[in-house]
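ENTRY TYPE: paired fold submission
RECORD: A
CONTENT: sequence, then structure tokens
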Amino acid sequence: MEDSCPVNNVAQQAEAQRFRKQSKKIGRKLSRRLSLITKVPNIFNVKFAGSESPPTPHKIVHGVSTDAADGTIQQAHEITVIAPDKTQRLMTGSSEQTIKQLLAGLVFEFSLEQPGYYLGGSLAEIDENCTIDFLVGDIVIVQEDQFHSDQKHENDGRYCLTEKFIYDEVAYVTCLKSAKELYGEPLRRMDILSIEEYDLIFDKLLKIADVCSQVIKELQSDMENWDPLLAQIGSLFSSHFWDHYNDYQDVHPHAKELLREKSVLDEDFVAFCVQRKGAAKNSLRHIIDLPVSASS
């Protein structure tokens, strides 16, 4: 009997410790869920969007959208838009309107030949057919995406090719960098990705973006002082530049495998990525594949 008390105490302490650990784990999960609900309010709508019938026509009335067929009330949304002239506009539309439909008047106003829609901050390209309920709380940037030559050396083939290469490379780098703000940082802050998982997916990816940004700056400098007889751009793509792509080739399969595991085992990860992909044109999986396809 005398020996049983210490044993019982040890068992009780161990049980209490296990309970505290479990409580802490549950607390973190609840906190993460609440964060998701707060930051990503439309997750559950997104999950079931595919099973819904096509929307019926509706009209905006005093800040709410009234369905013309059955009179149901839907919330209208006010979206902040940066126009091509850098002015800020507030555009109001129903949750089932696409961003392309909402901004059709703005595209017409500025005579945009190939309009591009981007998320403020991350500059991630927006899918023009996403509905505006995915963009509540975001700033939308509208700009012309049609390439236009400066025509300084229009008869110089190397100059024209370099000019177009810079244009495409800027878009490529912007897409790579958008992965951090659009997916990486929110997933890390909500503890959906650990630091190790974050580094595996984004560290080498962002290093490629940085080295490409440096090449773009050097190319732009050469373009400003272009001499058809002396211009040499091949030297900018040194072995150091390609080493970053080789490093990424090594981690890319592991990053893809991690995404596959998270897609199967972590419903919070899936819900967040579904919501973000609802607005963004490029999924996280597509972005991490870009350097591999670019270097192949």
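RECORD: B
CONTENT: sequence, then structure tokens
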Amino acid sequence: MVQIKEFRIIMPMSMEEYEIGLSYTIMKMEQQNTNSKEGVEVLQQVPFEDEKLGKGQFTSKLYHLQSKIPSWMKGFASSSALTVHEDSWCAFPKSRTVIKCPLFSKCSLTIDTVNRPDNGCSENVHNLNSEQLAAREVEIIDIASISRDYWSKMISAPNVDLSAFKSQKTERGPLLKGWMDSCHPVMTTYKLVVMDAPIWGLGERLEDFIIAGERALFLACHRLCFAWIDEWYGMTVDQIREMERQTDMLLKKTLKKPGKAGSKHEGKRKTLKDEIAVVGSCT
């Protein structure tokens, strides 16, 4: 059975700040989780234009994170089969991400994101039909909260108490009870996670497990996005793009993956339209 879960993550920042802050946070987390044996490998980063999303940046990555895979899954799969392939089409304020794993080739995981300058009050930003709305489960994530489940431990993100944190540059924080209803500026990232694992005897367990993993990743990433605000506040999009190029080279060097000539700017890539034709659109 296909599971549809919408996570609403409210952030104490403007839309423009969030675009910069999230990019910075993702790069820093990738660096922290990459070593000579495992980590994130950037295959391609190029501009794209799509009739649905508009203009943006296409990114293709491989995640070699076998040590974070649970033992029950390692028992029947090789490390290469557990490598995760992520394709992402980001055209802020919207994006689509498609995640695949060789071991579960029949499964599909898509994440559609819409960002809005509100505090999570928009009810159908993904334009779902009545059937999809009936199946959708909504959860508001408070970045000031702390999770102690399996995935939060595996992500190993730095622990920051946002109820005691205050930004020196912006003087925002601490995030105390009720902050989501009173903070300014404020914006919300609406993430629609659609997971389909048509595997007899394992499908529902796998769907629950993967969605829980995405939730933990969303929480950790957005907690750090605010906790690191004094590091990225004031940066420009051009500075972020240059950092992405430098991070790409650093990750390849750390993982000891030789870069291919022209791999970042040449060659045919799948468009968002091609990918939707394969996995199906959830909006």
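NOTES ON RECORD B: Confidence is low (pLDDT under 50) at residues 259-269, 275-283. Residues 128 and 134 are 9 Å apart (CA to CA).
STATUS: closed
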